[in-house]
Every structure is written in structure tokens, then in C-alpha cells.
Amino acid sequence: MEEHIEAFIKGDKKAFDRVYEKYAPSMLGVCMRYTNCRDDAQEILQEAFIKVYENCGKANSDLPLGPWIKTITIRTAINMLKRQRKLILKDDENFFETSGEIYETENHSENTQAELLRLLNAMPSGYRTIFNLFVMDNLTHKEIAEYLEISEGTSKSQLTRARDWLKNNLEKKRNDERA
After folding, report:
1. What secondary structure does DSSP assign to 81-146, as a single string?
2. Of 8, 36, 57, 75, most Cβ neighbours within 10 A?
3. Which domains are delineated in the chain?
């Protein structure tokens, strides 16, 4: 694959096709985390790989290609959400900080994982975006604030609200199952 990366950076179309084949499936997964619509995710993926191709000369052959492509994909997803006005964040820097409480499920079966994914997709877009950036993509609140052009406090409060939303919905599901 390394020889394809060099050719890709030089703008070789066949090398780009190989890069696309390797990274598109995992990047579609990234896109799906930011939208609950497969069509939107595929649109984000297509737009992201157009940007990848147009900026192939900016890739650094000394660094792994995957993180560079993932960064472009995440930024493309965020920009699409902003354009569609699906990303609405409330600026509330006085909202309480996270308590450090960790929410765990009773078991880690495939059903639980599927339910968590369903809940993440049902989560309000602003909460889901911050949750994905912080928890799944390991960005700091400072980086999230820069990406989304918000304050760090807004990022923190939205993450707290996302965790609370997720916790409340998991508890509701458990209570419904017990009833």
C-alpha cells in the first residue's frame, strides 16, 4: 500500500482508487455517527473523498494516511450539518461540569451495542456531534470548540447533556423492560 500512497500524493487516479477502496468503508462508519440517515452519510463520504482527492498533494508521506482522511471526513460532516442547520448548540458556559460519573450497561452483548447505536442515532444532532467528537474521535474540548466555532464551555455543557440524555434513555429502556 505504501507505493500507492506515494503515487496518490502525486495525484495518480488509480492510486486514489486504491486509497478509496481501503478507507471508504471505515469512513462511512464515521459519517454514520454524525447523521442518522444513510443517504446523508454517503453524501458526506462522497464530498470528503472529493476533498481528499483535491488535496492529495497536501498529504504527508511520512505520516499515516488514515488519520488525515478521517480529519477531512469529520470536518466535512460538521460542515454539512452546519449547512443543513441540523447542528444547533446552545451556548451555556454556566452549565454544570460533568461529574466524572461513568455510565455502564449491565452487559455488553451485541443487543446492548445495537441499542446504544440506536440511541446515539436518536440523540439530538448537537449532542451527538459533541459526543462523537469527544468520545469517539478523542478530540479535546479546545479542538471541538475550534472545529465548531463555539466556546469550550459550550462543548463541555453539550457533552454533559449528551451523557445525561444517553443515561436517561438507557434507564427508561431498562425500566420499560422490567415492567
Report:
1. HHHTT-------TTSPPP-------S---HHHHHHHHHHHHHS-HHHHHHHIIIIIS---HHHHHH
2. 8
3. 2-83 (1.10.1740.10), 110-178 (1.10.10.10)
Kindly report, residue by residue over 123-172, the tens digit of the pLDDT. Answer: 888 889 999 999 988 889 998 998 888 999 999 999 999 999 999 988 88
End-to-end CA distance of the chain: 54
Q: Cell numbers at residue 63, please?
A: 505520516
Q: Which three cell numbers stand for residue 135?
A: 468520545
Cell triple for 56? 492529495
pTM for the model: 0.69
